[in-house]
Design a protein that fits this description.
- By secondary structure, the protein is α/β, with parallel strands linked by helices.
- It has four helices and eight strands.
- Helix content is about 30%, strand content about 30%.
- A five-stranded mixed β-sheet has the order 5-6-7-4-8, with helices on one face. Strands 1-2-3 form a three-stranded parallel β-sheet.
- It is globular, with a radius of gyration of 17 Å.
- The termini are far apart.
């Protein structure tokens, strides 16, 4: 195989990506690709050194409804403000998402959606600043929900609430 797809508990991503890259294969890894910035930087460098692709998988923006968003942006010009609500019901009590040692928590699990939303609506604009606040926590200490405010410059901003402590919701305004 030329490509390895990694879809495991979050804390295993680093070691499996490292092995896949060392074997000379391109890698697609479920979000969150990594739990630490240093790890992400090291893995990106390892992939680049071997001319391999390393991609974190967030596929929601490939849904046909986002073609409409891209068409509106192309027709009407750039988006200045975006609001996102991205949430889902709680998981079963034994879910790894409540286990910090396994890379659980809403921030690890859902912040890739916040980043992808910014890329979708503010294509090409650099993220200048982001502020995040944990809103609720599980009894295990894992974060269940968070809010984010991201500044993309020139008045462009993303505000959002993300979590797994409400009903299922995907909304962009």
């Amino acid at each position: 195989a030329e490509v390895v797809y990694i879809s495991t508990v979050n804390n295993l991503h680093e070691q499996l990506v490292e092995k896949a890259l060392a074997s000379g294969r391109h890698v697609m890894v479920d979000k969150p690709a990594f739990l630490e910035l240093e790890t992400a930087q090291r893995m990106v460098s390892a992939a680049a050194a071997k001319s391999l692709c390393l991609a974190e998988m967030t596929v929601f923006s490939y849904h046909p409804q986002f073609d409409s968003v891209r068409n509106l942006i192309a027709r009407d010009g750039p988006v200045e403000r975006a609001v996102a609500i991205f949430s889902m019901p709680p998981f079963p009590a034994d879910s790894y998402r409540y286990n910090i040692d396994l890379g659980g928590g809403a921030l690890n699990d859902l912040s890739p959606y916040a980043a992808a939303t910014g890329r979708l609506f503010f294509s090409g604009a650099p993220l200048l600043e982001a502020t995040c606040r944990i809103l609720t926590r599980h009894q295990s200490g894992a974060d269940l929900s968070f809010s984010v405010l991201a500044n993309y410059g020139n008045g462009r901003s993303l505000m959002g609430t993300f979590g797994f402590d409400t009903e299922y919701r995907r909304k962009y305004m």
